[in-house]
Amino acid sequence: MSLDDFRHEAFDVLASTNAECLARARAGDHGLLWITAGRQTGGRGRRGRPWVSEPGNLYASLLLIDPAPVGDLPSLPLAIALAVHDAVRAVLPIDAPPLEVKWPNDVLIGRRKISGILLEGEPLADGRRALVIGIGINITAKPGETPYPVAALSDFGVSISPEELFARLFAAMAEVLELWNRGQGVGAVTARWRSVACGIGEKITVNLPDRSISGYFSGIDDKGMLMLDQGHSGILPIAAGDVFFEQIGPRDE
Ligand code: BTN
Hints:
Elements: E1 7-14, H1 17-26, E2 33-40, E3 58-65, H2 76-89, E4 99-102, E5 106-109, E6 112-113, E7 115-123, E8 129-137, H3 162-180, H4 186-195, E9 203-207, E10 212-220, E11 226-229, E12 235-238, E13 242-245
Helix pairs in contact: 2-3, 2-4
């Protein structure tokens, strides 16, 4: 997969770049299509939350069609986080706080979230499956009330346009998707993910749709599942959930 395999369409305003990608898929698009918008009027976040989308930040979605067998998809969010991490690392001053990834795909600077990633999938009428990777990166604006600390790149002295940051994301994503190799490269992806992981060994709480569980974050397994060490109860692999760190480090103060 090379850079030339990807297309890009840029809009000033859209309801949601994810929604636009899904509409293109329903209309027969064959995928590897990036859609970006200067702002969104109906930006979508995880768990049905809105994603406030003021001008100045990056709003981008990539449409994939039949990206991998379903069983190989769980490692894709980790690969996407690596692409965002690479794009941000290239523009962040070297004296900035640590740039890390919180499982599975939140990119943090100094433990504050600077990006959101929303994957949305849909079976198409012709039997294919659409998967949309939606990425928002806070460049100048950050949401007000969130259950986790947030930051924007400008907090760390970064001055960059959404277009320039997108160019870096476009290249980084092509490289990472090649490494991921339709899920066959899961070993390389998990190895690279571990090298930028935030909070391994720390006490965490994982919010699942129906309950919260606590334990120690002992890393990820070879498929990219979070391994929660629950002491006497053993290690519980977790496929999806929101992670919260319980021990606040000095970097957060
Ligand atoms: C999250 O809640 O952390 C995920 C937020 C994802 C936001 C991005 S912005 C571009 C794309 N279009 C959307 O409507 N949402 C995603």
